[in-house]
Amino acid sequence: MNKPKMATEKGVPSNSRVMMLLGQLERMNGESMLRDVEMARQVTTKILHVIQTQEKSGKEVMSKGSSGMEVILASLEVSSHPGRRVGVFVSKGGTGVLFQILVNASKEFPPSEELMLQLHSLLAKVGPKDRKFGMKARLSGALNVTINLMKRNLLNTKLLLPCLQVLRVYATSSVNAISLGKNGVVELMFKVIAPYSKKNTSLLKVALDALGALLKSKTNARRAVDGNFVPVLLNLYLDWHRNDARHRYMLIRKGLLVCLKNITNIKVGRKAFFEANGMRILYNSSTECLPVRTLDPLVNTSSLIMRKCFPKNRLPLPTIKSAFHFQLPHVPADGPVAQLYSQLPGVDDVVDESDDNEEPEADSDTENDEDEKDNCSLNDDIETDINKLHPKRSIGRSFEELKFYKKFFSELFEDFQVTSLSSSSTRVARPIALPAASSQKQISPNSQEDFNFVKRLHTQQSPSTPASTTTAPQTPIDLDSIHINKDEDKKEDAKFPSPDGQTISATFCRSPEQELIHPLECVSLEDKGNLRAEVGSERVKQEGSPVNNTRHIQSPLLLGGIPTRRDESGEGAVLEVPDTAQLLPLHDPDLYVEMVKETFSVPRYAEVAYPDYFGHVAPTSKEPLLERLYGVQRSKIFQDIERLIHPNDILDKVVYDLDIPRVVPLKYCFSCPFESGNLRKAVQVRKYEYDLVLNADINSNHYHQWFYFEVSGMRVGTTYRFNIINCEKSNSQFNYGMQVLMYSVQEAISGRPCWVRAGTDICYYKNHFARSSIAAGGQKGKSYYTLTFSITFSHKDDVCYFAYHYPYTYSSLKMHLSKLEDLRTPRIYLRQDVLCETLSGNSCPLLTITAMPESNSNDHICQFRNRPLIFLSARVHPGETNASWVMKGTLEFLMGSSPLAASLREAYIFKIVPMLNPDGVVNGNHRCSLSGEDLNRQWLNPNPELHPTIYHTKSLLQYLAYIQRAPLVFCDYHGHSRKKNVFMYGCSVKETVWQTNISASSSDLQEDLGYRTLPKILSQIAPAFSMGSSSFVVERSKESTARVVVWREIGVQRSYTMESTLCGCDQGKYKGLQIGTRELEEMGAQFCVALLRLKRLTGLRNHQNLLDLECDIIGTQSKAASSLTTYVMEEDEPSFLEAIDYSAESNDEDGEPENELCCEVQENFDLLSDSETTTGTS
Questions:
Q1: What are phi and psi of 793, to 5 degrees?
Q2: Rounded Cα gap, residues 915 and 878, in angstroms
Q3: d(CA 609, CA 612)
Q4: Quick check: 121 and 164 in contact, CB under 8 A?
Q5: DSSP string of 20-39, one letter each residue
Q6: What is the DSSP track for 356-424?
Q7: Vertex 1074: Cα angle to 1072 and 1076 (nearest 5)
Q8: Residue 872, SS3?
Q9: Calculated CA dihedral for residues 730, 734, 738, 740, nearest 10 degrees
Q10: Residue 86 has what pLDDT?
C-alpha cells in the first residue's frame, strides 16, 4: 500500500486535514491495516494530534452526518492483537479526550443522541484497557453525564445499551461504585432488569453484569437489602429458570446468581436471603439442573450461595476443650493452658457472626482454594535480619549444668579395657535422676510407688470423662528375658496366592474351621480386676501345609460377655488368630501387651486395638492415588443442604459420646479406648450416614486432624458415609487422591493383617459449623471443614479400624526397641538410655548406635571416639505417624548385617531420640504434648518441667557443642499433610536473602554449600525424595523450631527437617501411588545410605576432588566438574518457602540410580526386612 500524501500545505484548514486523515483510515480496510500496522498507527496518531489541538476538529468528527466515529470504532475493532490498538490509544491520552468531548457534548441541549451513542460505544471499548478509567471519569464529570443520560433514556434501548456497558466498567472501581449507589443507580438498575422475555436479552445481560459489579460494594449490598430487592432477584431467577427450558439464556441466569452471591457476602444479606426462602428456591432449581452438564456454572454458584447462607451452628459438644484434662505441675500465667481455662463456662465456643466476606472459593467442583496464604504474603515470613541469619554458636549454659549429660556419651570416654568388647549393648531400665538446677524439677528414681502416687495426683480427668477403676502395674516386665531370634538364613516359607494373583510368602495358612459369629471388640487388658490378659499361643501342623501357626486368645472379657465358641475346658471365649510374629520378626503381640501395661495415659486405657496387637504387614499390591470423580464434592454438599430443606429425614441420634459414657452398647458401635485412639462423638444423621467429631489435643481446644477408632455392627454390602466434621486445615490431600486407612479384623484372621487404603467419594470442604475466634487465634468468621468418605463393609460380624495414617504407638516403639536388641552382634555398639520422663511418667528413650572398636588398642579406641556424630529425632508431632515408620526403617538398617550398615556404623556415632512426644502419641493428640503446646515451637527456651523431652534433647546438643563435638548432621523426621513426596527443609543465609529485598554484602552471603549435599544425594538415590520440593529458607515463624535453633545456636550447618508425605508421590517410580509403610521404611534406609555417601564426600579435603567424586557417585553428567568456579550442588534454585502446589512437576529425574551403590542399598533393604519385607513387596 502506497503511503498517502497528507495535506500539510499552508492554507488547508485543519478540519479538512482531519477529514482527509479519516478518509485515509477508512480506506485502509481490515486486511491492509493488518499488513501495514505502522502506517495505520501514524494516521491515527495524527488524527489524535489534530483533535487535541483544534477544538473544532473534534466537533466536526462528532457532528451529525459525519462518519468519523464509525471509522475510529472500526479501526479499533480490527487488530490481530486484541486490545493492542486500544492500549496505544489509551497511552496517548485518548481516554481523557473522549471524556472531555462527552462532557462538552452534554452541555448542548438537547444533546446529540448519535454523538452520545458513539461516545459511549467507544468508551465501552477503551475502558477495560485503561486502569485509571474510573478515576478519569469521576474527575472529569463524565460519571454524572452517563447517569443522567440513563435516567432520561430508560426506554431507549439503543442508547441504554452502550451506557450500561460503560457503567459496567465504571463500577469496577470501588469508589465509583459507592458514588453510583448514592446517586440511585442500584435502584435504577432494578428498573432495567425484567422477568423472562426473549426481547432485549443482550441489554439485560449487560445490566446484570453492571448490577453485579455495583453489589460488590458492601454499601450497595446493604442498599439492595434495605430496598427489599433480595426477594425480587430470587423471583426473577425462578422465573427465568422455569421459562428458559432450552437453556439459551444461561448467562442471564448466572448474572442473577452473581448478584445474589455478592449481596450474601454481608450478614444482613444472608439473613434476607434465608428469610426469602432462598435456600429452598436455589436447592430445588439446582437439583433440576444437575442432569445437564452445561448448567454446572449455575449449580456451582448456587452451591456457593447456599453454603454461605447455611445457618452457622456450634459443634454438638458441651465444650470444644478436650474431653480430657491433665493437671500440669505449674501453669504459666501467659501460657495457652492458663488462657484456655480462664474462660468462663460456655464462652469457649461462641458462634462469631462476622460481617466479613467469605474466603474466595472457586466456582468449580474440583478443588478448594488455599486461603491461608498467597504468594504475595509468603515473603512476609522470611527472616530479613542479617544478624539472625548468621549462625552464632551460643550455648547459653554453664558447663556445670551441662556436665551432667556426660553420662549419655560414655562412648566418647570409654576405654574398653575392663569391659569386654563382646558386651555391645547396655540398657538403663529406670528413669535417671535429673540435675538439680535452679530451673529444673528433681525426679527421684528410687521408688516406683512414689512415682505412681505423683502420677495419680497429676493425672485427673474432667467431670465429663468416664472414670477408670484400673491402675497401671507396679512391676515392669523384665524385657531382657525375652529373646526373639531373627532367621538370618531366610528359610523357605509357605506360598499362597493373594487376591491380585501374586504369590505371598507366609508361614501359616488360614484355618477354615474358625468363624466369628458375633461382633469383635478390642483385646482387653483386664482379668478379674487386674490389667492382666492370659494370652497363649499354640502351633498346629496340618497335612498339606509346611507350617500352620495360630494363636488362641482366651479371656472372659475378650468379647465383652457375648457368647462365643469356648474351648473344652470352658474357661473362656477362644479366638483363633494367626501368629503374626511369623510374618513380622520384629513384632510380638504378647510383648506388645506388656508394653501397653507399662504405658501411662490420661484416659487410662484398658484395651488394646487389634491392629496394634496383630501388627501390620505391608500389602503386596500397589495402592494408586484415588481418582477424583466429577461432581463428588458438589453432591456431598447438596446432601448436607438437604438436612436444612428436609429436617424430618434427619435422625440426629448420638451413638457414641466420650463425654457421656453409655452402659448398654448400641447396635452400631464406635469406640477408641486404646492407645493413640481419637474419636469424641458419633451422631447417626441418616440410616447409613454418621457425623464424627474428633477430640482436641489434651489441654487444648483445637488441633483436630488425627483420628483412630473402631467400628462394628455394620451391614455387609451396604455403603456407609462417614463425615469428620471438625477438621481445621483449609485444604487437604484428601482432595488430591489420598484415602483413609482401614484395618479389618476378619481380614487379619484370614491371613491378611494389614492396613489398606480405603474409601470412595472422598472430599474435603468447608462446612457450616463455626469455629470460635478463641480456637481460631482471634480470627472471626472461620468455619470447620468436613472430611467425608464412603465405605462398604465386606465381612459379616467384622470389626474395622479407621485411621488418618498408619498408626505407630508408643508401645510399638518400646516393643520395637526391645526387639532391636535381639539383632545386635558383638560388633555392634548399642545402648539404650532413658533421657527423661514425660509429664505423665512415660520414659523418653535415647539410643546410641555405632560399631565397636576393632580392638582395645589406643589407635582403634581413638578412631572410635573421634567418629562424627549424627543426631536424629522424630515424632515431635503425634499425628505424623509416618515419621515413626521412617525412623523404624532407619533403626533397622543401622542394626542390620549388610556391609553398608557395617560401614555406616564404623563411620559415625548415632544419637537417636525416636519419639520426642510420647505423651502426645499415647493420648491420641495430633500436635501437642500434655502442656497444650507444640513442642517443635519450644526449642528457643524449653521449660524443664513442661517440655522435658525438648529441654534434655537440647541439653545433649549443647553439651556436644561445649566439648567441640557438635553433630555433623541433625535431622528431625516429620510428616506433611498438604504436599506430596519426601523433601527437606534446611537453613541457608544466601537462599534466604535471595527471597527478600534486603541488602547484603558479599561477605554476608559467604557460606559453605555443604548444606545442599545430603538432600541432593537423597534426590538421586531415594525414589520418593524430591529436591524440587525442598527449601533452605529461614522463616521468622520457624525460628523456635529444632531445625533453626540447632543451626543457629549449636552451629550445625546440616540441620534439617525431613518431611514425608501422608499421601503419595507425583514423581519417580512411585508416581501416582499412595505411600505405604514399606516406602517409608525404605526412605529411612535410604537416608542412612546418603549419610554414608556424605562421609565419603566430606572425608576429602581437596575441593576439586570433592566435585569429581560427587559427580561420579550421584551419576550426574554435569559439566560443572570441569569448571573450577562452579560447584555442582549449586545447580538448583531455592524453592520458594513452603508453597503448596499439588500439581507442580518435580525437577528430579525419574530414572533409576545408575551406580552400583544405589542398587546395593535396595538389595540390602530387602535382606534387612527378611520375611516381613518379602511379604510386603510391592
A1: -90, 135
A2: 9
A3: 5
A4: no
A5: HHHHHHHHS-HHHHHH-HHH
A6: SPPPP--SSSS-----S--HHHHGGGB---HHHHS------S-HHHHGGGGGGGGGGT---SSS-TT--
A7: 140
A8: strand
A9: 110
A10: 75
pTM: 0.77
* SS3 of residue 131 by DSSP: coil
* Inter-CA distances, 572 with 65, 524, 564, 608, 1014, Å: 108, 13, 9, 18, 57
Q: Cα–Cα distances in Å, from 1115 out to 196, 395, 585, 982, 1156? A: 70, 40, 36, 21, 10
For residue 971, the Cα-to-chain-centroid distance in whole angstroms is 21
Catalytic residues: 1059
From residue 826, alpha-carbon distances to 427, 832, 846, 850, 851 in Å are 16, 16, 20, 12, 9
**Chunked mean pLDDT (size 10), the chain, 1178 residues:** 40 60 71 66 78 69 62 59 68 85 85 86 88 90 91 90 93 92 93 89 94 95 95 95 93 96 95 96 94 92 94 91 92 81 65 50 35 46 68 77 93 72 48 35 35 34 36 32 34 37 37 34 42 33 37 37 34 52 82 95 93 92 93 93 94 92 69 96 96 96 94 95 96 96 94 95 94 75 93 95 98 96 92 96 97 91 94 98 98 95 96 98 97 95 96 96 95 96 94 76 72 95 96 91 95 96 96 97 97 83 42 38 29 30 32 39 42 37
Distance of CA 561 to the CA centre of its chain: 42
Residue linked to cell 559427580: 1111
Residue 659 near residue 681 (C-beta atoms within 8 A): yes
Separation between Cα atoms, residue 963 and residue 664, nearest integer Å: 62
Residue 1021 has φ and ψ, to the nearest 5°, of -110, -20
Instruction: Identify which of 1083, 242, 336, 160 has the alpha carbon closest to the alpha carbon of residue 703.
Output: 336
Identity of the residue numbered 355: D
> Any idea which residue has 535471595 for its cell?
994
Give the separation between CA 131 and CA 129, rounded to whole angstroms: 6
From the list 143, 30, 163, 7, the residue with the least C-alpha distance to 85 is 30
Question: Which phi and psi angles does 299 have, rounded to 5°?
Answer: -65, -45
Q: Which three cell numbers stand for residue 419?
A: 569391659
* Nearest residue to 107 (alpha-carbon basis) of 149, 135, 67: 149
Contacts 24+ apart (CB under 8 A), 273-281: 273/230, 273/234, 273/305, 273/309, 274/309, 274/311, 276/230, 276/231, 276/234, 277/234, 278/230, 278/234, 278/305, 278/309, 279/306, 279/309, 279/310, 279/641, 279/644, 279/645, 280/645, 281/234, 281/237, 281/238
The amino acid sitting at 309 is: C
The C-alpha angle 633, 635, 637, rounded to 5 degrees, equals 70
Name beta bridge partners: 870: 910, 969
Residue 561 has phi, psi (to 5 degrees) of: 85, 0
3-state DSSP call for residue 211? helix
- Residue 473, preceding peptide bond in cis (omega within 30° of 0): no
In the sheet that 538-539 helps form, which strands lie side by side, from edge to edge?
Answer: 538-539, 549-554, 574-578
Residue 990 exposed, middle or buried by CB count within 10 Å (0-12, 13-18, 19+):
middle
Q: How far apart are CA 405 and CA 952, in angstroms?
A: 9
At residue 602, what are phi and psi to the nearest 5 degrees?
-65, -45
Core vs surface per residue 736-751: b (16+ CB within 10 A) or e? bbbbbbbbbbbbbbeb
Q: Residue 1119 and residue 1109: Cα distance in Å, rounded?
A: 13
622: cell is 500397589
> Alpha-carbon distance 971 to 659, whole Å?
40
What is residue 39's predicted lDDT score, i.e. its pLDDT? 77
